[in-house]
Amino acid sequence: MSHNIISRLPLPKRSRIQEIKQEQVEYPDGMQVGIFDSSVPFSINKTLVMSIALAISCAGVTTYFLFAAQKTKVTDTQPHAKTVLSQTTQSSNTQPSNNAGTSTSGGTRTGSHTNTMSSGSNNAGTSTSGGTRTGSHTPGNGASSPHWLMTSGLLGNLLSMSPNVADHFFNSNSAFVKSTPVNGLAATPIASYTSYAQFAQDLSDGSFPANVQWVMFGIESTTNTPLIEQQQPNVYLPKFAELAHQHGLKVIEVPGMDLVYVNGADCHYQYPETTAQAYLNCHIPQDSSQADIYLIEAQGYQSSVSDYTYAVTGSSEQALAANPTLTIMSGLTTDRGDSATQIFSCWQATHNLVSGYWMNSTSSTLPEADQVLQSIMTHGG
User: Fold this and answer.
1) Cα(306)–Cα(303) distance, integer angstroms
2) Is residue 267 pLDDT above 60, yes or no?
3) Which residue has the higher pLDDT, 270 or 131?
4) 78 pLDDT exceeds 80?
5) Total domain count for the chain?
6) Closest CA to 159 of 149, 168, 147
7) 96: cis peptide before it, omega within 30°?
8) Crossing angle of helices 366-378 and 152-161, rounded to 10°
9) Any residues with CB less than 8 A from the CB of 275 and at least 6 apart, and which?
10) What span, in angstroms and rounded, lies between the C-alpha atoms of 346 and 168?
């Protein structure tokens, strides 16, 4: 998956709400009226009309002009001209058609988008294009309500390597272990899926693991997620959360930023966007907001603290605008060549914006992960 350097220039506006273009309406007398909305009223000069009417001796002609003057008046309840829509939108619980829409050279996108998400409360703020948000929000604090996640095998190795670190971050049911529990640690086990279809099948036939209360849905272009699910995260992220909740499960959703490069995607990268801008403009964080936890795959930007912070901030704000009760986590990793100091700096810059992290690592780079976690411990995390 490629990652572009993120510009902090204003993001291209690509909103799912309807845009209305200005329309010029020409009337028989040559007067032109600019209409931005179908309910904008206007009136003509009644004095001029009456003067013309009095100057005409024929009663029939006079009646005609008075009638014409009345017909040219538009009220708020009687639209005069058809509004022009440059972008249409759908909001329903049905799956969108295969027509993903087309993009123009100017960066606008036409086509349909299905969004099954309910709107957030009034104090959540409003989402604008590019994922920015207005309104009030108190960000989560990783130090006061930590959620840390690691795979079972690596966590077992960390426990052997550095028991105090493993105990500090993972000996709590607010922490998570991907796959099976690790003896000696209280981290909550989670089942992991890369396919909605497989998850639905396992629930249907009883294959879903017993006594597991949390499930993760991770979709990327590089996983074995079915192509249709990669192409339509706006459909399958909400559907996964809804199905899990119907079965009494809690959900962590982890949509990859590379979804914007999937061929045939409902929403696709458009030049000159950066990857993170496309991810926000396609509203993937918003589509994840029905989950209990939304985990931002920002680790690809660790080489730049400012880029990492940009990705975390934009994604969290967009998701929280849709669901202010959502818990936000982010990703860190030791498998991309960044130093422990660099990874710690990314944590330091964002830990007040999120409620925890997924520490991705490998067996060979686990000592570096241990070093990062020790630094975070030292600084109160």
Assistant:
1) 9
2) yes
3) 270
4) no
5) 2
6) 168
7) no
8) 70
9) 2, 3, 4, 6, 257, 258, 260, 261, 269
10) 20
Query: Whole-angstrom Cα distance, residue 356 to residue 36?
Result: 46
Q: Mean pLDDT in the chain?
A: 74
Query: For residue 216, what are its two tokens?
Result: 């993760």
pLDDT tens-digit series, residues 210-225: 999 999 999 999 889 9
Q: Are residues 64 and 166 in the same domain?
A: no
* CA 48 remoteness from chain centre: 55
Whether 249 has a pLDDT exceeding 80, the answer reads yes
Per-residue CA distances from 244 to 203, 240, 241, 295, 303 (Å): 9, 6, 5, 17, 35
Contacts for 233 with CB less than 8 Å, ≥ 6 apart: 219, 255, 259, 284, 287
Q: Is residue 373 part of a domain?
A: yes
Band (pLDDT 50/70/90 cuts) for residue 89 is very low
39 is in which domain, residue-wise?
A: 20-71
Q: Is residue 337 part of a domain?
A: yes
Cα gap 211→208, rounded to integer Å: 9
pLDDT tens digit sequence for 92-147: 333 333 333 333 333 334 333 443 333 333 333 333 334 333 333 333 333 344 89
Predicted TM-score of the model (pTM): 0.66
Write the DSSP assignment of 148-204 as a string of letters.
EEEEHHHHHHHHHH-HHHHHHHHSSTTSEEESS--TT--PEEEEEES-HHHHHHHHH
Angle at 158 between CA 155 and CA 163, to 5 degrees: 115
Pair 217, 142 in one domain: yes
- Type of residue numbered 54: L
Q: Give the domain CATH number at 174.
A: 3.20.20
Beta strand 176-178 pairing with 147-151: parallel
Write down the residue that tokens 């964002």 correspond to. Answer: 350
| 332 neighbors 360 (Cβ within 8 angstroms) | yes
pLDDT tens column, 315-328: 999 999 999 999 99
Q: Could you tell me if 303 and 339 are in contact, meaning their C-beta atoms sit under 8 angstroms apart?
A: no
Rg (alpha carbons) of the chain, rounded to whole number: 27
